[in-house]
Amino acid sequence: MIDLHCHILPGIDDGAKTLDESLAMARIAVADGIHTLACTPHIYPGLYMNDGPGIAHARARLQAALDQQGIALKLVVGADVHLVPGLIDGLRSGQVPTLNGSRYFLLEPSHTTPPPRLEASVFNLIVAGYTPIITHPERLTWVESHYPVFQRLIAQGAWMQVTAGALTGVFGQRARYWGERFIGEGHTHLLASDAHSTGRRLPRLTEGLEVARRLVGDREASRLVTERPAAVLANLPPPGFGLPPKDADQATGRPSMIRQWFSMRHPAP
After folding, report:
1. 3-state SS assignment for residue 13
2. What angle (nearest 5°) sits at the alpha carbon of residue 60, between those of residues 54 and 61?
3. Exposed (0-12), middle (13-18) or buried (19+): which is 86, by Cβ within 10 Å?
4. Are 116 and 142 in contact (CB under 8 A)?
5. Three-state SS for 194?
6. Rounded CA separation 193/228 (Å)
7. Over the stretch 183-237, which tens digit does the pLDDT of each residue have?
8. Running DSSP on this structure, what letter comes out for residue 257?
9. EC number(s) (predicted)?
10. Which of 131, 211, 213, 233 could staple 167 via S-S, CB 3.0–4.6 A?
């Protein structure tokens, strides 16, 4: 599996604090079946002053430590980016790194407030040649009132990434509901760990992947952690997106059975 969202680099954001913790996170990831992992520290002016060259240097140092310890994990460069003025210029200059130098990058909206002009900003990024991957929409406090916005962002060309731990209740029942809904209704491109430590938010995908399998079947679930992340790293279009035919209403293409399943299992919070 490939994990495209992980705060494993030591001491540069709110993720791993020390090299030993980074190495322990790497061992957990490998034991879970992850062979490639994107180092994606926050870039947030005024709080986390990371940049492309600094992240690349930190990745190289950690990769050397992994190799020395015999930990079979390949690291690639990325960042968890906030929507701030000058973002396109930062992407073009390399100060804001994309995932493995591709056109794809992680875009983290505010957790508590819908960004003004979000749809217009994402559209401008796409026009500029980039593919924003919106991180953990299921955990945003404003998802209830903006769910159709995320569907429109997908129609524009943005991707959605759900957190594996959200599907197992790590972030509470509300995030679990929305995570299952994003995946079950066919609005998710990637499943990632968004790991920050060896504790509650650790770099594991398998438990969340099992939930995804129950929602959309083996093939689509596998794409969330293998084929699509590989396409990102190779800078290719997404292989297969949307619900499998067996899960969609044959006449309309809408995931009618999934909607019925949700309404029976748990009402919207």
Report:
1. coil
2. 90
3. exposed
4. no
5. coil
6. 15
7. 999 999 999 999 999 999 999 999 999 999 999 999 999 999 999 999 999 999 8
8. H
9. 3.1.3.48
10. 211
β pairing state of 74-77 and 42-43: unpaired
Instruction: For residue 246, give the amino acid letter.
Output: K
**Whether 212 contacts 258, CB under 8 Å:** no
pTM, two decimal places: 0.89
CB atoms near residue 21 (< 10 Å): 18
Tell me the backbone φ, ψ of residue 2, rounded to 5 degrees: -125, 130
Q: Look at residues 164, 160, 156 and name the one whose alpha carbon lies nearest to residue 143.
A: 160
CATH class of 2-243: alpha beta
Tokens representing 143 are 């998802």
Entry field: residues in the chain:
269
Strands 131-135 and 104-108: parallel
Q: Is residue 49 scored above 90 in pLDDT? A: no
Helix or strand (DSSP H, E) at 214: helix 206-225
Which stretches within 32-172 are classed as H helix?
52-69, 87-93, 118-127, 143-156
Q: Report whether 30 contacts 1 (CB < 8 A).
A: no
How many C-beta atoms lie closer than 10 Å to residue 186's C-beta?
A: 21
The strands making up 36-39's β-sheet, listed across from edge to edge, are 2-6, 36-39, 74-77
Return the number of other C-beta atoms located less than 10 Å from residue 141's C-beta: 12
**Number of helices (H) and strands (E), helices first, in the chain?**
9, 9
